[in-house]
Design a protein that fits this description.
434 Repressor (Amino-terminal Domain); 2 domains; 5 helices; six-stranded antiparallel sheet; alpha+beta; four-stranded antiparallel sheet
Length: 188
């Protein structure tokens, strides 16, 4: 596995434990609030497994954070320049979805994420992951289907979609080649 991805798993593990400890929550408390099993949370906190995007969204929501907010806290970056070599990369172990945190700072309202969605893969995220953000998605290569609140949007290279109010969203690559896209997030 990629060393950068392994480092991201370790940083996420530390951040999740810190978030839980700072609230005085037990594993059972976090499991109850997130709907993720105690065993899974324990393995994630020990960096034995890398959580899926769906699990991360549930854990972030339990802490009253977005996925982007949790990742930002895990990475702890704040420089004005985000060098490609320093940009954290995380891979969803379930789908192979690759997420690169291109830019994020705690004092800046905009965040940029680059994603590579493998062919024939999909990720569905709950409405809670969009409660504190607004986002726009721009497809760089390939094709992507976005299903937002039941509405289907088919995007090709160069197409851009501005998301509506918080709703469940499915990101699906129905093609036989990877899709690369950029997400620009603004915290509200």
């Amino acid at each position: 596995m990629d060393t950068i991805v392994d480092d991201a798993t370790g940083r996420l593990a530390q951040r999740l434990r810190l978030e839980r400890d700072s609230r005085g929550w037990s594993l059972a408390d976090l499991a109850e609030r997130s709907g993720v099993s105690k065993a899974t949370i324990s393995k994630i906190e020990r960096a034995e497994v890398s959580p899926t995007a769906v699990v991360l969204v549930r854990l972030a929501a339990a802490f009253d954070l977005t996925l982007a907010g949790l990742m930002l806290r895990a990475e702890g970056q704040g420089a004005r320049i985000s060098r490609a070599i320093d940009q954290p990369v995380w891979r969803d172990p379930e789908t192979g979805y690759l997420r690169r945190q291109v830019f994020s700072r705690p004092d800046h309202p905009v965040e940029i994420v680059k994603v590579e969605m493998p062919a024939k893969q999909r990720v569905t995220l709950p409405a809670s992951s969009y409660a504190l953000i607004r986002q726009t998605l721009w497809v760089l290569s390939g094709a992507l289907v976005i299903i937002e609140a039941g509405e289907r949007h088919e995007l090709g290279a160069g197409d851009c979609l501005g998301f509506g109010p918080p709703a469940e969203v499915t990101f699906a690559n129905e093609a036989t080649v990877p899709c690369v896209y950029v997400v620009a997030l603004a915290r509200s």
